[in-house]
Amino acid sequence: DVASSASLNSQPSVSFVGNGDHFLDSDGQTNYINSNTEFSLFIVYKSDVTNSDKGLFIADTPSGADEILTIRYDASGANGGGSFNDVVKTGILGNDADNQLESFSDIQTTGAQIISLQWESGTTYDLYVDGILNNPSSAADPPPSGTITTATTALLGKGGKDTGNNSWDGEIAEFIFYSRSISQTERESIEDYLADKYDQAIRKITPATGGEAISADDA
């Protein structure tokens, strides 16, 4: 099932209605996922719902597990004693809590977001939301070690919980994948490009009532 076209901030995007529609790259596992010991990916998207378990990307057929390479919304996080809600969740390698990251609570939104996920075996496992590092105390530590070898597909618009007629509900405008862990300078340059393209604030800390947004670089 291929989703329909739409726009996000006047830029082309793919629209998903959450009924199992998705975009399939049938040989993505061979072309850019398997054999990796590191990667960097970026996704520009907008959700139509919150308090959601719907997924953005997965590298195997959804079976309820967050494994191999996947990223999704998670209404009730499992890490940190289950104290995080409405998070972004990622999983790599085996289906194990030590291989899964969860963002801070209340990250889910119906506004546009830019996500960056970086992994380097045994060295780095970082999740950025709108340019701000989102690795709370529940983060996998040390970073998972290994090689991705069991990817069987590449599905945009699905995650581990999107079995059957379930999928992302919203838009996905851009997916960028590097088979290496890029530098901070490179990551910020790509984030800035995407933020400008989609008119999205980047590395800005949300102000308190009556406050003023400041750059995360200056916080």
Widest sheet, order of strands: 1-2-13-4-9-10-11
The class by helix and strand makeup works out as: mainly beta
Q: Detail the poorly predicted runs.
A: 208-214
How far apart are the first and last residues' alpha carbons, in Å?
44 Å
Beta fraction: 35-45%
Label the CATH architecture: Sandwich
Characterize the main sheet.
7 strands, antiparallel
Annotation keywords:
mainly beta, 219 residues, globular, Jelly Rolls, 7-stranded antiparallel sheet, 9% helix
Could you characterize what this model shows?
This protein has helices at 28-33, 184-197; strands spanning 4-8, 11-17, 23-24, 38-47, 55-58, 68-76, 85-93, 100-102, 112-120, 124-129, 132-133, 155-156, 169-178, 204-205, 214-215. By secondary structure, the protein is mainly beta. The protein has one domain (4-183, 199-218): Jelly Rolls. Strands 1-2-13-4-9-10-11 form a 7-stranded antiparallel β-sheet, with helices on one face. A 6-stranded antiparallel β-sheet has the order 3-12-5-6-7-8, with no helix packed on it. The protein has a two-stranded antiparallel sheet with strand order 14-15. The longest helix has 14 residues, at 184-197. It is globular and about 40 Å long.
